[in-house]
Amino acid sequence: MNQLDHMVIDLVMADMNKMPIASGCKIGINVCVETISRQGFVEYVAERLDHYVLPASALEIEVTEEAILEDHNQVRRNIDALQALGVKVAIDDFGSGYASFAHLLKFNFDKVKLDRSLLIDAKEERGQNLYQLLAKISDVTGCALVAEGVETEQETAFVKSCGIDICQGYFFSKPLPLEDAVDWAKERAERLESTETAA
């Protein structure tokens, strides 16, 4: 396994207990092509979850489109095994140029994250039509969809009009140091809990 991914996974899991995972907070970790296509990767993830006493449901592994062009059989086995543990698997930066729609049918992803470049192109009518078409991916695959790179209220309104409820980007928060990210996540979790209670 890629040594950097090894270190990142360990460091992130060491910090996960500081996050409000009991409130449903999930932590995503990006892994490279070499890692997701290696034998032994799933066993390592399972061992680290056990070591840090973390629920698998709190973890999400994100892979790039490039990864699914590698050893299909091993990548598929690893994705299936991660999901069997309870770990969610997302394809990151979808639409950045590597994969085709056919790959979404070959691999059982839990989530598809639409690359910001698609949202930038949506400033024009043709780009808007394409984004609206991509927003229907979940109807075919059953995957949750995430709009990446949302930076303005206008972009938020547009992706929501396309039927995408999960957004990620600077409009909501810029990258934060761990302590600030913990406070931000706890505040969001408390706000969501109070909203659900009021309802």
Q: What this model shows, in words?
A:
The chain is an alpha/beta fold. The chain has ten helices and six strands, in the order αβααβαβαβαααβαβα. Strands 1-2-3-4-5-6 form a six-stranded parallel beta sheet. Helix 3 packs parallel to helix 4. The longest helix has 21 residues, at about 180-199. The radius of gyration is 17 Å and the shape is globular. The protein starts with a helix and ends with a helix.
**Poorly predicted runs:** none
**First-last Cα distance:** 46 Å
Overall 3D form: globular
Mean pLDDT: 88
Strand content: 5-15%
Percentage of helical residues?
40-55%
Number of helices: 10
Q: What's the count of strands?
A: 6
Spatial strand sequence of the major β-sheet: 1-2-3-4-5-6
Give the oligomeric state of the chains in this entry, treating copies of one chain as homo and distinct chains as hetero. single chain
Order of helices and strands: HEHHEHEHEHHHEHEH
- Tell me the Rg in angstroms: 17 Å
Structural class: alpha/beta
How is the biggest beta sheet arranged? 6 strands, parallel
In short:
The protein is an alpha/beta fold. Helix 3 runs parallel beside helix 4.
